[in-house]
Amino acid sequence: MSENLYLRRVGEEYNTIYEQCERLNIELQKLVPLAKQMHLLSSNAVASAARAGSKGDAFRVLTQDIQLLGDDVSASIQATPTVMAEIVMLAANLAQLFTHYLLLDDLHTRAENNKKVTSDGFLNHVQQRIVEDIKDNNHELSRGLNSLSNELSPIAIVVKKGEYLSVCSSVEAASAGEHGVSFEAVASMLRELVGQLGKQSARQRSLLRDLSESMEKQQQTHQHLIYTR
């Protein structure tokens, strides 16, 4: 494969990384309404326990755990919009920087063919500056992905807690007599929200894993060609 085609393939990889970042960003935004629904559910659970009076004492304890569950979801996603915005920006910068690199590489080839030494030296200097910017952006993007992974890692634990709480809520509903209907409604909604959270979390982890693999592949395929020029 010629160097020019190889460079263009690397450029396509940068564009792919940017597209993956955009998809991940869209998926992460779906966590925000889920967190709001979780807090609304906790409010409904508190109201159901209050209506049950002393018969809702055991369920009232569960409502506190449901509230904490919503807080955990909110805490996990609190920093993700800022981190994700930085990741998307860095990916866009990398794609743009590499486009500039390709343009300069083309000019560099023309200068060599025309034996324009002065232009050739200037282009080498500018090209090297772009290479350094690419290195810096690559490093920052990798750091951002690690940070995002750390922010999202507690969600898997939250899902497990939610599944356990939904089972406990159903058990309590079964023994709550006339108040069991409202308790079971809370348990049913909790199961649904936790199920959605689990599916979205799995989807996001998959996208993040694919993105990290693309970053690693991209760096391996062109680091010798570019970083050693």
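(ticket continues) Second input and output from the same batch:
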Amino acid sequence: MGWVSIPDPPPAAEDLRGLARSLRQLLEFGTQALLEDAEPAEVALRISGHLGCELTAIVLVAERFPKWEHVNVQRGVDAYLRTQRDDPEWFGTPGSGRHPHEDILSLISSPASQFVMFRGPRAHLIRGGDAVSGGRGAASYGTAAVGPEENTEVVTFGLVAAAAPDGAPVVIGIRDESQFGAPVCNLEILAADREAAAATRDEIGRLMRVHDVFRGQVLSFTESEHHGNELVSFLPRPAITAQDIVLPGGVLDSIEQHIIGIAEWSQDLLSAGQHLKRGLLLHGPPGTGKTHTVRYLTARLAESTVILLTGRSIRFIDAAAALARRLQPSMVVLEDVDLVATDRDYTPDGNPLLFSLLDAMDGIGADADVTFVLTTNRADILESALADRPGRVDLAIEIPRPDAGCRERLFRLYIRDLAVDADLEPVVAGTEGVTASFVKEMIRRTVLASLRAGERPPVLRDAHFTAVLAEMNGERQSLTRSLLGVDAGEDAGAGADPDGRPVCHRRFR
């Protein structure tokens, strides 16, 4: 008879839990023993040696900025350091940037900061000095925009030895949390004396404003897909002149007098006790030239900061208004404001975004050289408090569909140097009620018609205009006409006279 092997009973669950607790305690005791025996890290010794005090005596003065101000923090620190030395030496700490919720003082003063821990099935500890030679890491760098097509290098985690305005030693730190935490950038000053640290921070803040990279730029707020935070983007300034603007007589003059005229007489107006803040509402059908007019003002105000908000980015109005006041003279443009500023009767619970917009316009200050320009396709449903109340919008200008004179100017503007073998008078008459966008698209299609006919270079002929206008007024183009600002129930002239020239069969209703 053979032997039968009987397996030992499996350990009880409580025994396993007890073993796990014992192992955890053993790990904690071992970690504490290592920390108690650890020597101060080289970076801590370097900082305390420069400041001339023990780590426990170091004070920290910090200021937090939104991520998009990182480049200005860097410019302020660079300008501050230039007053003291030509070759600042930035340095970091082991594992820098991996602890977004700890300030620099905590990172260098805590013994635990000398170790990098790897958690998991093979948990173990290594000394920070083993990971980075000498217990001191190199500073970390990134890039940030300083213009539409230009970037600069910024410190994302680093420290540099310096002196306070009164000569006391300080250490300046820049820490970008966005990679591992919140979308913010921190300026942190270490010193043995709080007053020295605060004075250093304040002077860097002053230099940030002097060297502000946003001043005189065209900016827009966008949203980061990673954190949902606001980001500031640089846009090129348009090159548009008054000759590129086609509006009814006197309209552009009124706009310029209200926007640019106040800017040119700003000091005299202030001396006379008059306010500088102004609001302009441009309203009219889509495609009539509201945005084009805004682009002209942006080009005309070449020395002003312009901040563009459109669509969902209008929710950043508070940050945009604060930036506009800081960088005045400035202009804040809110396009298609009817999307967020409709009358409160249309929304049962009110409109929080509308309230933010109104508060921002009210809070900018009457003495600020700031212009708010709002555009809308639906002035009829615009919040009355926004459109009518003095101090928010004080000039409303309608941008209508172009009359015959304006349409002729538009055709000649968009034709420019193209060859024309056509009588434009019937073409102008046959497009009554269309918008500037419609005319621009019609010219493009007419050029394509000439090219398809084998004409190189293209020549704009009567037959091309007739065919294109008939095509654009066809039933299949109803949505296109709507997108170009033509009402759904209205058509431009779609026929031709006996000589083949376009004429208007139906007038707009």
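Agent notes: The chain has three domains: 39-210, 234-398, 404-503. The CA atoms of residues 285 and 377 lie 5 Å apart. Closing as not reproducible unless the customer responds.
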